Task: inverse folding
């Protein structure tokens, strides 16, 4: 049995339609049918239930598909590893990052990366940290830049890269706008513009507020990203806590440092512990550590 036959079977099993599968594989339907028949003959059982022109994967087929997926995954992994040894600096990387890094940090990073690794192809995903975690769990991301994230499904390895301060932002005409520093408890009675739930920054801000006795805030709006939050603060809908994002000075807000407690977040690279990393992904992970160490 050849790898190509297994790849043919996988497509037929996933589509459960011989004609569509043949079109996807760019081969004739008779040739595809013969390939599937040869597999069934070699295994000794039918893998599909055939009803007229329709085919449905049966219990033997479902069991075989699980094994085929593992075989093809290992085969592709071995090819990647060997190609990485033969041609270092080549490969594909799926890389994610949280919203706040998309204005400046990641664009600058990728400009340097493309110069250093011109032959590596990147697929980039910008999303909330909880969605990035979901993609990591599924194996759809190799690495992501985020705050520390934890999974109930897999073990996440997180390497700290840098720390950034979180600021209270208020409208320019707010009574606190003249202050350079405040204690976080001073915004206790203020209406609050928040990041939406499902974001690690939201979790961190909620915990910071809770630690100073602000367990319930009067949330007037929940934004997808800090720029939206800054826009609503600028319009007078409340105050908020966000990092110093690029372009913040363009909003009619005042950024205020917090004396007590320390308000900061740590950003690092997250990956699934123990999961295979191609040579290209390993190179990029090590580059991230060196790049941000030099910042």
Result:
């Amino acid at each position: 049995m050849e790898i190509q036959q297994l790849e043919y079977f996988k497509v037929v099993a996933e589509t459960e339609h011989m004609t569509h599968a043949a079109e996807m594989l760019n081969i004739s339907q008779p040739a595809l049918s013969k390939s599937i028949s040869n597999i069934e003959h070699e295994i000794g059982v039918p893998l599909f239930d055939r009803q007229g022109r329709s085919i449905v994967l049966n219990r033997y087929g479902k069991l075989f598909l699980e094994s085929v997926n593992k075989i093809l995954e290992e085969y592709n992994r071995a090819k990647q590893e060997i190609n990485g040894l033969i041609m270092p600096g080549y490969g594909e990387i799926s890389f994610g990052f949280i919203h706040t890094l998309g204005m400046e940090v990641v664009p600058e990073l990728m400009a340097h990366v493309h110069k250093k690794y011109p032959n590596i192809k990147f697929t980039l995903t910008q999303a909330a940290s909880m969605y990035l975690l979901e993609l990591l769990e599924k194996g759809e991301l190799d690495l992501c830049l985020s705050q520390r994230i934890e999974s109930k499904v897999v073990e996440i390895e997180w390497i700290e890269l840098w720390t950034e301060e979180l600021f209270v932002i208020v409208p320019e005409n707010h009574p606190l706008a003249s202050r350079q520093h405040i204690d976080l408890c001073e915004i206790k009675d203020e209406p609050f513009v928040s990041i939406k739930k499902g974001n690690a920054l939201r979790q961190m801000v909620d915990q910071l507020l809770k630690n100073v006795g602000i367990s319930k805030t009067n949330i007037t709006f929940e934004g997808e990203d800090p720029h939206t939050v800054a826009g609503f603060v600028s319009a007078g809908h409340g105050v908020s806590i966000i990092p110093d994002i690029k372009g913040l000075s363009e909003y009619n807000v005042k950024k205020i440092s917090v004396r007590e407690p320390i308000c900061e977040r740590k950003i690092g690279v997250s990956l699934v512990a123990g999961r295979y990393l191609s040579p290209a992904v390993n190179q990029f992970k090590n580059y991230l550590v060196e790049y941000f160490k030099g910042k």
Notes: The first strand starts at residue 48 and ends at 51. The CA atoms of residues 10 and 65 lie 7 Å apart. The two ends are 53 Å apart (CA to CA). The longest helix spans residues 59-86.
